[in-house]
Amino acid sequence: MTGVHNGEASEAVAERPARRRSATATRAALRTAAAFRFGKYGYEGTSVRDIAGDVGVDAALVYRYFGSKEALFNDVTGAGKIFEPLLKEPVEAIPDWLCAMLLGAPKDGEFTHPVLSVLRSSGKSEAVARLRADFSEVFSTRLAARLGGPDAELRAELLAAWMLGTSLVLTEIRPPALQSAPDAKLEKYLRSVIATLLGPAALDAGMPETGGDCRATGDH
């Protein structure tokens, strides 16, 4: 904690200009904010107003989309539940969903990344095993089946790894270039990576096969 009260943090975020989002993107951003709030302050220490304020929307929208604070908590309790909505999106809408997830996370240092919450939990081995099982189910199995094409499972797992690493750096490490970059510029690069992993044709077009080992260096 840095001494900033929940309500003060929410009010500061609420003062930021609201970004126009689709209903899908708004739900994803609310889930992300809720996951961070519940992970940092627990159920009792988190209010619907705080979550809505982090996203820059009215609290009534949280009730409209999720019904209640308890329902939202249950929705984001496990990693599998956090990413379950991703599987309901058309493949072409996945970039929108992921960008909302990454750009919707609070970046003011007041929130613990959900994965860090798992790694720091008392039953670490069990929690990590559950996290691995959830991600295997969502990405390695179900998303990979939807993507199809060459190396679908590898691409799905790389997408998950890249997304988690990016969100961790954005929220916990907060390097200067990432912190100062406008959302529009970040989104441009995010979408480029997502498109490459979702569609192998983009990778094939940009990287001709050489038959060599990418780790090799020097002349032979």
Describe this structure in words.
Keywords: DNA-binding. Residues 47-66 bind DNA. This protein has 220 residues and is mostly helical. It has helices at 6-14, 23-41, 48-55, 59-66, 69-76, 79-83, 94-103, 114-119, 124-147, 152-173, 176-180, 183-198, 200-206. Helix 2 (23-41) packs parallel to helix 7. The radius of gyration is 18 Å and the shape is globular. It starts with 5 loop residues before the first helix and ends in a 14-residue tail after the last helix.
In short:
By secondary structure, the chain is mainly α. The protein has 13 helices and no strands.
Please give the structural blueprint.
Blueprint (H helix, E strand, L loop, with lengths): L5 H9 L8 H19 L6 H8 L3 H8 L2 H8 L2 H5 L10 H10 L10 H6 L4 H24 L4 H22 L2 H5 L2 H16 L1 H7 L14
Helix pairs in contact: 1-3, 2-3, 2-5, 2-7, 3-4, 7-12, 9-10, 12-13
